[in-house]
Amino acid sequence: MKKATSFLAAVAVAAAVAGGIFWLNRPATITLPDGARVTLLGVEFGKHHVYPDPKIPGERDLSPMSFDTTNDTLVVWVLQEHKADHWPDYQAVIYDRRKTACLNSSTREYRTIKRGAEVAGLEFNAFPRADRKFFFGVVLWGNQGEQRVEKKLSVANPARRYSYPAWTPRPLPDTQADGDLQVTLNRLTAATPSPYGHVDDNLEDPADRYVRIDFTVRQNGQVVTNWQPQQVETADATGNHIRSFLNNPRPDDPAGGYYYQSGLWPTQPWKVRLEFSRTTGFSPDETFTITNVPVLRGPPRQVWNEWTNSAAVADTVLHGISLKVFPAVLSTNRFQNGRRNVAFKFTTDADLEAEGLRFSLVSATDDQGRELQNRTSRHDPHSHLFLFIEPPDTQTLNFTVAVHKSRFVEFTVDPAKP
After folding, report:
1. CA atoms of 193 and 127, how far apart (whole Å)
2. CA separation (Å) from 371 to 164, 286, 340, 366?
3. What's the Cα-to-Cα distance from 201 to each of 193, 209, 254, 255, rounded to whole Å?
4. What is the DSSP letter of 264?
């Protein structure tokens, strides 16, 4: 009987490994400061992901039962249990065994089990694929800022790579070009301390480390400053690929340089692809100017309804993209101490980023030609919303916008260590 049991257990383990799924016989738990619990249920790698059943008292059979990802994705399954009126606010992270780098989960999917309990599928686009095991942990965000839970849980790697291509890094400085734009990568340093000097930074924890990147931009051989970096994509030969935004250099940093989180594991070369976008110098066929855009006024709800249902006041085509301009709306925002603001939006019939394009508001003036100040903005694939706080009292606005092509350069580099 013992031999049969052992054989069946071995078959079960082999089947789990073959399917890229590792379930835990003894789930491990991380307890958060507020008493909420995050229990590790298992980990898998693939495109189709079926929620595990934690079998807890009071469980209800609620959908969904599974979800799919476009690419093969690492999913860490956890059971989160908390007070019914207090959702746990944490960021899931993965460390390699040597803790040389740390990456956050990109997305998470939920299945409600009962009030105050959910199974979460935490998706990771990158993880230490060459390691036999890695560590799972959480970082909290609260009123006091970032908090770390020191406990880390060891996880078996369901998609370990034993061999992968060998990338040959180029020595720095290295210059790559897109058209008449040349970018020279002078230095790239992994695991650099935060440039922002947060008081709660733990320099021993890679969750508080950045990648520092230094480059020089030239157009037709001349150094320029009107081409600024937008995004950086970092990849390695094991199949990891992440996208990050670059933070502007600190004005008081004499060495300059840009920073981003997160990098990959610096034990092998990276491919670093940078997107650059212009801030000035747009050509006439990239810009569109419209004057006398009406500013809607009135009670907040009435104005909002009129604005969201309004028709475009102008449209054009730039770089083959249909662009529409909508009226502006003037309102008082109770979340901004009752200050007035004016908001306006533009829509496109295509995802500009997917087309290698960017949208820029070149200028915004009132009916007296005065520039609007205190701008914030929000963009999604088909909508571009701008908001100005305490604008001049005006009945109409004038805009110049640009739809323009980005430039892309890629480097294969061996990241330096600080």
Report:
1. 21
2. 55, 21, 16, 7
3. 9, 9, 22, 21
4. -
Distance CA 268, CA 319 (A): 39
pLDDT tens-digit readout, 304-333: 777 888 899 999 999 999 999 999 998 876
Rounded to two decimals, the pTM is: 0.84
Beta carbons of 268 and 237 less than 8 angstroms apart: yes
Phi, psi of 412 (to 5 degrees): -105, 115
Q: What residues does 408 pair with on adjacent strands? A: 275
Of all residues in the chain, what percent carry a pLDDT higher than 90? 56
Q: Is 243 helix (H, G, I), strand (E, B) or coil?
A: strand
Kindly report, residue by residue over 262-288, the tens digit of the pLDDT.
889 988 999 999 999 999 999 999 999
> Using 50, 70 and 90 to split pLDDT, how confident is the model at 10?
very low
Q: What six digits make up the tokens of 78?
A: 């956890």
Q: Which tokens is 126 given?
A: 């990158």
Tell me how far apart the terminal alpha carbons of the chain are, to the nearest angstrom: 58
Q: Please tell me the predicted confidence (pLDDT) of residue 7.
A: 37
Q: What is the 3-state secondary structure (H, E, C) of 304-370?
A: HHHHHCCCCCEEEEECCEEEEECCEEEEEEHHHCCEEEEEEEEEECCCCHHHCEEEEEEEEEECCCC
Burial environment of residue 20 by CB neighbours within 10 A (0 to 12, 13 to 18, 19 or more): middle
Residues 402 and 279: their CA atoms lie apart, in Å, by: 10
Helix (H/G/I), strand (E/B), else coil: 284: helix
- Residue 338 pLDDT class (50, 70, 90 cuts): low
Give per-residue pLDDT as tens, 64-77: 899 999 999 999 99
Q: What is d(CA 262, CA 68) in angstroms, rounded to the nearest whole number?
A: 25
Identify any residues that bridge with 347 across adjacent strands, giving them in sequence order: 324, 383
Sign of CA dihedral 199, 203, 207, 209: positive
The residues, any chain, with a CB within 8 Å of residue 209's CB and separated by 6 or more, are 101, 102, 190, 191, 192, 193, 194, 203, 261
Please, are residues 191 and 209 in contact by the beta-carbon 8 Å criterion? yes
Residues 6+ apart with CB under 8 A from 219: 180, 181, 182, 227
